[in-house]
């Protein structure tokens, strides 16, 4: 598990609006992605950790799958003790250390105060900007609603899409709407492909996210 995570694991921290004292929630999640041929291995982690869930890819992502843990108690009591014992290597170790710090802050209720939330925001930005699973803003090309409306819902589900978090200002780019939907599920945000297509078309905000058509597939 530690070896796979060093290569294809993601420790994710999200900040979104919620009915809390600070006005924001901080869902955290762990995502391990592997080729579909390794689906049995990913599914075995469900029983090994007695938590999390395997999500097979679809559409353009049919050749891969994700094992995701997003329950805070499971992350605290099962995932973190595991990685504390079996160390990750490289830059991913720094991500894990930051992730672990955010989990600790959440468990102490720091995310419910403006000061604690700001501390978490600083950690989140350090993880996402300097260690690599978030693409920079210039990669996004915005397509007008008229252009989007000329395409069918089914076709749009397989188009490249970018998601901008208007709170942190960070943007993630994905090869398909299906991949974007899986990413959001991994950080505790429920948004089906149909929902993402709808908000792509009307240009409105979904919670604290803005969706863009991303024509740049590089």
TrEMBL record:
Keywords attached to this entry: Endonuclease, Hydrolase, Mitochondrion, Nuclease
Pfam families: LAGLIDADG_1 (PF00961)
Residues annotated as domain Homing endonuclease LAGLIDADG: 1-103
Highest taxon above the source species: Eukaryota
GO cellular component, one term: mitochondrion
Any GO MF annotation of the entry: endonuclease activity
Annotated SUPFAM superfamilies: Homing endonucleases
Matches recorded under InterPro entries: Homing_endonucl (IPR027434), Intron_nuc_1_rpt (IPR003647), LAGLIDADG_dom (IPR004860), LAGLIDADG_Endonuclease (IPR051289)
PANTHER family, sorted: INTRON-ENCODED ENDONUCLEASE AI3-RELATED (PTHR36181), LAGLIDADG ENDONUCLEASE (PTHR36181:SF4)
Descriptive protein name: LAGLIDADG endonuclease
């Amino acid at each position: 598990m530690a070896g796979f995570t060093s290569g294809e694991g993601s420790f994710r921290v999200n900040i979104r609006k919620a009915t809390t004292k600070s006005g924001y929630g901080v869902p955290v999640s762990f995502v391990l992605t592997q080729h579909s041929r390794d689906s049995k291995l990913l599914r075995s982690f469900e029983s090994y950790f007695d938590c999390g869930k395997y999500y097979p890819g679809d559409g353009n992502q049919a050749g891969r799958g994700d094992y995701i843990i997003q329950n805070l108690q499971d992350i605290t009591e099962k995932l973190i003790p595991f990685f504390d014992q079996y160390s990750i290597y490289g830059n991913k170790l720094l991500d894990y250390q930051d992730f672990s710090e955010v989990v600790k802050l959440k468990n102490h209720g720091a995310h419910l105060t403006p000061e604690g939330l700001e501390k978490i925001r600083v950690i989140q930005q350090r993880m996402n900007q300097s260690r690599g699973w978030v693409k920079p803003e210039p990669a996004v090309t915005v397509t007008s609603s008229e252009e989007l409306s000329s395409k069918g819902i089914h076709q749009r589900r397989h188009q490249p899409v970018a998601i901008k978090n208007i709170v942190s200002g960070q943007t993630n780019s994905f090869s398909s709407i299906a991949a974007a939907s899986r990413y959001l599920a991994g950080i505790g945000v429920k948004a089906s492909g149909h929902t993402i297509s709808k908000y792509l078309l009307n240009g409105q905000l979904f919670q604290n996210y803005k969706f863009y058509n991303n024509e740049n597939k590089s």
